[in-house]
Amino acid sequence: MDRRTILQHSGMVGILAASVAPAVHAQATIRWRLASSYPRLLDILFGTGEVFAKAVHDMSGGKFQISVHPGGELMPASAVLDRVRSGAVEMGHATPADYYDKDPTFCLGSAIPYGMNARQMNAWLYEGNGSKLMRAFYANYGIVNFPGGNTGAQMGGWFHKEIKVLQDLKDLKFGLSPLAGRVLAPHGVVAHSVLDSQILQRFEQGALDAVQWGGPYDDAKLGLPKVAPLYYYPGWAGSTETEFLINDKAWQALSAEHKSIVEYASTHAKMTMTARYDAQNLSALKTIVGGGRKLMPFLPEIRRAVFKSARELYAGLSESNPEWRTVYTDYVKFQADQILWFRFAEGAFDGFFQQQKF
Amino acid sequence: MDRRTILQHSGMVGILAASVAPAVHAQATIRWRLASSYPRLLDILFGTGEVFAKAVHDMSGGKFQISVHPGGELMPASAVLDRVRSGAVEMGHATPADYYDKDPTFCLGSAIPYGMNARQMNAWLYEGNGSKLMRAFYANYGIVNFPGGNTGAQMGGWFHKEIKVLQDLKDLKFGLSPLAGRVLAPHGVVAHSVLDSQILQRFEQGALDAVQWGGPYDDAKLGLPKVAPLYYYPGWAGSTETEFLINDKAWQALSAEHKSIVEYASTHAKMTMTARYDAQNLSALKTIVGGGRKLMPFLPEIRRAVFKSARELYAGLSESNPEWRTVYTDYVKFQADQILWFRFAEGAFDGFFQQQKF
């Protein structure tokens, strides 16, 4: 017998109604909508929103319910940031690196070529200044953000022809993220945004020479192995972080308890995304290689040149964009320390297994 | 005005008491004690229990409170498993690799030489069979376990003399974890358990030639840089996972809501521990090096020999211990896949920064 039934049976509902109302109101179910930027097909990306919503549901005893909508259902994926900002939906799940054209600073909390790997990003976000700085940036958009899952390092993309020397990048029609396109531009790459909904179709039709999308699991889902024979590695970024974006007014209306539930549910969702990719990518890669596709490493000369042009672009952004400068200054200092630390225990351990037959 | 006050003011407390009682009971505060295995001095290890307890407190609106007690306060650190099992405390926080003498299988959910790195462990625990298998093992002890934080790869320990060739390990009086001691025994190491509370004192007094404890942050707190001049890397294990151990009866008494809160709070605590170590270790390492201690890599010949003896020991355990065999068979298959996958995107990305000046 629940409390409502007890009160009805006690015959005192009318008498108590006025004074009990606030307590009943506090127990009312909260219903939010989460606009994902990802189609159901990309089930790890989309599913991370579902993991988050389930955690919130379960921890709140069902009193906080979030419906998760795939990209395109409520709005085009590209509109998620704006619609969260306007309050059309309470929250979204997105890859903020996609918002480069609004402000490159979004990329710093998400993915930049030669940026931090997934674990270093965790350290920066949770125990460095990362979350604090990105929160201050998102406040300009009336949005409260939480880390929403990291894909880990991705692959370097699908190519029709080998990239043997730096000059092979010249005039290459390459579909990739907006920031990576800017980083590769000095080497003559003709960048096409991978956010263009027609990009895969155009790649299939031969209008592009190469496309970088994600890792083996997602690339296989998107059918990329059918289009080109060469699969390069590694990707340009050390990791790609997604974010949960919450409308500030919706956030402020939550109880302290529900705010905590959102925060910790996001950590679990984040952990789950990386774990799922790590658990699934090899099997997808084996199928890809079994199907005759060839794995190709980017050569050191090319990687060093792209690293150099990345650093130059970032230095330029630091001059032209104060928001970028504020966040990047902290980011790159933290990254330098992480890289140095990872040369010892972590990198030396992992490095052993790069050579050792297991 | 809270509900109790409202009812008192309405003058109907006595009338309603009987029927309202069940609802009030469901809201009663739950109080647990968490026996940490770590002293306050090791503030990242000990503090992870506090992060967990705060998350549980905040998400439950203060209705589920867990007091966190440092190692030695309620019981010796070594007694945590037994006292959680007996129900003397509801839960503990421990490094299960320390329970090698009870059953080496504990090490598989915690740390084994040449085992998985922190991120691979996450994939195995959250998305492979890791948690399921370790849960089944812990059920023998009447304990429900949750991952409780990973230190990442540790350093290889403090040495008075250089280890130039494999033969330098012979007759080396080496304080280290019980399983690592077994792995190194075939090379002539005279292993002393690092769990011995007198181990640091004996190292200071010159009774030991070397001690491996943790990474730079913890080793500095323990005063190890004062004892020996050479700091080797990397540690033998790819990561050291800690666990939250919960008495099964206490667990079963929780509501579904509180069970979820415990589960997701543990994920956040786990993420926090690794992030804290990654954010703090370099600074500690710089101080150590600045104080004149010398960083020394274990040479490939030695690492390959220890890897070989580790695999031989694990094969032997698989013959003699069915619990080990069940978990290890899955662990090592998963690890092999992870190592192969990490050679491409992740390892190739990180490897670039092993050489590249940043």
Structural commentary:
The structure is a homodimer of 358-residue chains. The first copy, chain A, is 51% helix and 15% strand. With 358 residues, chain A is an alpha/beta fold. In chain A, strands 7-6-8-5-9-11 form a six-stranded mixed β-sheet. The radius of gyration of chain A is 23 Å and the shape is globular. The interface between A and B is large, with 89 and 89 residues.
Brief rundown of the structure:
The structure is a homodimer of 358-residue chains. By secondary structure, chain A is of the alpha/beta class.
Set out the fold topology.
2 copies of one chain form a homodimer.
Chain A: H1 3-9, H2 13-26, E1 30-36, H3 43-59, E2 64-69, H4 80-86, E3 91-94, H5 105-108, H6 118-127, H7 130-139, E4 143-150, E5 157-159, E6 173-176, H8 178-184, E7 190-193, H9 199-204, E8 210-211, H10 216-221, E9 230-233, E10 241-247, H11 248-252, H12 256-290, E11 294-297, H13 300-320, H14 322-342, H15 345-355
